[in-house]
Design goal:
Layout: H1 5-17, H2 22-35, H3 43-47, H4 50-54, E1 59-68, E2 74-85, E3 91-97, H5 103-119, E4 126-131, H6 140-154, E5 163-167, H7 173-187, H8 208-228, E6 236-240, H9 244-255, E7 259-264, E8 268-271, H10 278-287, H11 293-298, E9 303-306, E10 318-321, H12 330-338, E11 343-345, H13 354-362, E12 366-368, H14 370-373, H15 376-390, H16 396-420, H17 427-446
Parallel strand pairs: 3-4, 3-5, 6-7, 6-10, 10-11, 11-12
Antiparallel strand pairs: 1-2, 2-4, 7-8, 8-9
Helix pairs in contact: 1-2, 2-5, 2-17, 5-17, 6-7, 8-9, 8-15, 8-16, 12-13, 15-16, 16-17
């Protein structure tokens, strides 16, 4: 599979141990394909067993989460926290509440998070967690009781200098607030930095809600400018998903001159040739927590189409997949290529299958992996931690300016790493190598731990 005997040996062992974890194996294989360009230059890695340690989480925590629904019935979900790598800082990464959550998904997310956090240049290690609990259709009381039960176990494993979770799919401001309240109640301390994505009245950061979506567009704009001498101005854009990342990617893209014509949820997508009405979308998703099909019911000229994967049939110049892992397969990629798309920038974590990535890159489209282009969220979480530590609150403009600077620096790090390893403009290779080298240097310096 790999030219490097060392990479082959380590990956074979990962396959043997984790054969039942397809998402994790996919993430490791993608990174190893990039590391093949530099591994022979570092024989000290093999001598120190660096890659063997890098692919193995430092700690995996799995626990039951019992809670009582509104009818008085006891429910039980599984909770997870994978503390993957703390070489450059405390574990940092979101919590995902979704029926698809299992150990493979959490390990792949934690593995990616290590490299993503490294790219931000902030002192954060990588971790990830969550549960197969589905907050959709649950009352506020049910969500609160679940979150309190989840944190009653998780609290003993986290802390502002140990592990600092945040939100992810299914975990927004409501869920973060419930979990923070329970943590504070148990430990009897106000540790603002223990969890990020908090409300503004109790230590949250302005621009944190918008950060992942905004950061995605800042990164994409930098790539379009540098590699294509182009911009979002006048471009037709498709954004998959309609959660936090998708909403604010659509907003920033629109502010930068693009026209978002399609968005989706897990059941289907809406197409609005006039451009998505963001005020209406925010009302449907943020206030009413309704399905995206409601948009087509209430906006004249908009269409709703069953099947979320079909969204890539909508003709566009730029695609921003912001829903979930492996949402775009080879067929979706082929359609984008045939329709003249010029770039695909990942807002979700690993939303393209390996086959889709190969087609996109092989046909000359711009492509950025989520570990680089969606790093704005965790970067701003790091800025929230800084504000909590300093007992300060920065303005929206201050945080947004810092976010723009971080995303430009991430792009430049990816690009220059791609040039240095002989693959100029291959932002996936650049992101994997730039992120890994920093972590590897720290791990080598700290010994066999």
């Amino acid at each position: 599979m790999f030219k490097s005997e060392y990479l082959n040996r380590v990956y074979a062992e990962v396959e043997r141990r984790d054969a039942h974890e397809p998402e994790f194996l996919q993430a490791v294989r993608e990174v190893f394909e990039s590391l093949e360009l530099v591994v022979d230059q570092h024989p000290e890695w093999e001598a120190a067993g660096l890659l063997e340690r890098f692919v193995e989480p430092e700690r995996v925590i799995e626990f039951r989460v019992p809670w009582v629904d509104d009818s008085g019935r006891t429910r039980v979900n599984r909770g997870y926290r994978v503390q993957y790598n703390s070489a450059i800082g405390p574990y940092k990464g979101g919590l995902r509440f979704h029926p698809s959550v299992n150990l493979s998904v959490i390990k792949f997310l934690g593995f990616e998070q290590v490299l993503k956090n490294s790219l931000t240049t902030l002192p954060m290690g990588g971790g990830k967690g969550g549960s197969d609990f589905d907050p959709k259709g649950k009352t506020d009381g049910e969500v609160m009781r679940f979150c309190q039960s989840f944190m009653t176990e998780l609290y003993r494993h986290i802390g502002q200098f140990t592990d600092t979770p945040a939100g992810d799919i299914g975990v927004g401001g409501r869920e973060v607030a419930y979990m923070f309240g329970q943590y504070k109640r148990i430990v009897d301390r106000f540790e603002g930095g223990v969890i990020t994505g908090k409300g503004l009245t109790f230590g949250g950061s302005l621009a944190r809600t918008q950060a992942t979506g905004y950061g995605l567009c800042y990164y994409a704009a930098e790539a379009l400018k540098h590699l294509k001498n182009d911009s979002f101005e006048g471009k037709t854009v498709v954004v998959s998903g309609s959660g936090n990342v998708a909403q604010y990617a659509a907003e920033k893209c629109t502010q930068l001159g693009g026209k978002v014509v399609a968005m989706s949820d897990s059941q289907g997508y809406v197409y609005d040739p006039k451009g998505i009405d963001l005020k209406k979308l925010f009302d449907i998703k943020q206030k009413r927590r309704a399905r995206i099909s409601v948009y087509a019911d209430e906006v004249p000229g908009a269409q709703y189409v069953e099947g979320c994967r079909n969204i890539w049939n909508v003709k566009c110049d730029v695609a921003l997949p912001c829903a979930s892992q492996n949402e775009m397969d080879a067929e979706g990629a082929k359609t984008l290529i045939a329709n003249g798309c010029i770039g695909v920038f990942e807002g979700a974590n690993m939303p393209l299958t390996p086959e889709a990535i190969a087609l996109i890159q092989g046909n000359g489209l711009l492509y950025s992996p989520g570990k680089a282009s969606n790093a704005g969220g965790v970067a701003t979480s790091g800025l929230e931690m800084s504000q909590n530590s300093m007992r300060l609150s920065w303005s929206f403009e201050e945080v947004d300016e810092k976010l723009q600077g971080i995303m430009k620096n991430i792009y430049q790090a990816c690009y220059y790493a791609s040039v240095k390893c002989g693959k100029p403009g291959d932002l996936m290779v650049g992101a994997n190598i730039a992120g890994f080298l920093k972590v590897a240097e720290a791990m080598m310096a700290q010994g066999v731990v």
